[in-house]
Amino acid sequence: MKLANYVYGQWIEGAGEGTALNDPVTGEALVRVSSDGVDVAHALEFARTVGGAALKALTYEERAAKLGAIAELLTAKRAEYFDISLRNSGATEGDAAFDVDGAIFTVKSYARAGKALGAARHLKEGSRVALAKTDVFQAQHFLMPLAGVAVFINAFNFPAWGLWEKAAPALLAGVPVFVKPATPTAWLAQRMVADVVEAGILPPGAISIVCGGARDLLDHVTECDVVSFTGSADTAARMRTHPNVVARSVRLNIEADSVNSAILGPDAKPGTAEFDLAVKEIVREMTIKTGQKCTAIRRILAPAGTARALADAVSGKLAGCKVGDPRSEGVRVGPLVSKAQQAAAFEGLAKLRQECEVVFGGDPDFEPVGADAAVSAFVQPTLLFCDKGLAARFVHDVEVFGPVATIVPYAGTADAIAIARRGHGSLVASVYSGDAAFLAELVPAIADLHGRVMVVDAAVGANHTGHGNVMPTCLHGGPGRAGGGEELGGLRALAMYHRRCVVQGGPAVLDALSRDAVDAALLGA
Ligand code: NAP
Known about the structure:
InterPro entries: Ald_DH/histidinol_DH, Ald_DH_C, Ald_DH_N, Aldehyde_DH_dom, PaaN-DH. The chain is α/β, with parallel strands linked by helices. It is built from 15 helices and 23 strands. The chain has helices at 40-57, 60-76, 78-89, 93-114, 161-173, 186-199, 233-240, 243-247, 273-287, 304-319, 339-353, 394-397, 413-421, 436-447, 507-515; strands at 2-3, 5-7, 10-12, 19-22, 29-33, 122-130, 138-145, 150-153, 177-180, 207-209, 226-230, 251-255, 260-264, 297-303, 357-360, 382-385, 404-410, 426-432, 450-456, 475-476, 487-488, 498-505, 517-519. Strands 15-16-17-14-13-18-19 form a seven-stranded mixed beta sheet, with helices on both faces. A five-stranded parallel beta sheet has the order 10-9-8-11-12, sandwiched between helices. Helix 4 runs parallel beside helix 5 (161-173).
């Protein structure tokens, strides 16, 4: 079966043989995708004109209601999405829930939050600015929805969440969406879009999907559009320098890879709640989605006196995780999504091993449960130990996109700060400590290079939302190596789909424009 593309209000099957999407456990070809023959320029123009106009005719609260209907539909079809996740991504039930339920939760969150924007169609920012001695000439800042299309170029690891965490705020803003999912796992995103189209929830042109290469996509974007890219730093660099993106100053948001840290404070010694909470979270981060999360813990910073005990505790828990075909009883860790990802992970692991000791896993002859190692894409969960601190190179630079993490002992708070910062910009750091003086020094010193810092102590206990969990109400993104993008953060996300304009004129025109506007302060509320 070849998955059709949905563009200019039609289902179009791409030409040629296309590319096969495989089951990463059995190697079986499941479906094929092709974008050949799709007129991308026409598709984007149809989205801008037909979809954009229809969405902008609705108010924020009407669009929020449509998100509510989408969330209901996705919830009703959850079991089918779990099945595709299992077959195309080798997802365990927990992995599929992370992606699919995460998507539904996020859409619901925007459906709820969007109601607060009421019957308006744009945003008014701040108060009137006096520009003359009398009221005759004033200014008002507005945030106006983009007239173009929101183009999403997505990564393979979150086919569901990656689509909806972007689509929800864009649609709420009144901007049509055009998604190009990553080829290896495009099936789930395509199915979700097909279901939403079939249900007739959105007006024609409000959502489009192209599966396959679509390598000419960026040739056709304009200054009215926004491109939101999620993927590797290498591809991101190509997007930033794309001649059409540069020439037309196309707005570009980048969520790239990241060498995130977990940091144990000096007080997080064996036997404390903070130590146990760190161990639990490290194991969860290494195993959920088989470590294929942009937010996953890659480096574990521990006081030199605690590091070995931590290595033993994490290794002990990893030994109890069954790795194999998620269809087999008791399996907790599945494969990577493809043989190509497995090869990339082995390559990265080989680099890390040049400066690390293997404390758990890393067995090239490891046998997954219920699967043939020759055709499947498994990587054994692997814990490394690097005593070179800041002097190490690969540990701070190489993101192995799989179940691999490295313990790096640190000498004191200044050293921990320097090592965390050596990630050159990360999505998240989690800190396990109840030591107020340590936290007061560390958190502000790393905050400018991290999109999110999660602090866990005994009082927070198990109530935290998780190192790797992205909450729709909180900012997601990170500076530097992490791409410099910003997503989510509740209604703040709408800012990317609006553009600020100050209108200068008499009070009558400003009053008229303000009548259709809601206070932009609500975005940060
Ligand atoms: P990737 O190879 O960079 O691909 C990402 C997307 O870009 C895919 O849809 C790919 O399409 C597309 N693409 C590649 N070259 C293109 C071009 N010239 N024109 C248009 N599209 C192009 O990344 P990936 O391997 O899918 O994802 C894994 C990476 O994503 C990891 O490094 C991870 O850390 C990062 N990630 C980051 C976040 C975040 O929020 N920060 C979230 C998830 C993942 P094809 O698949 O068709 O090649």
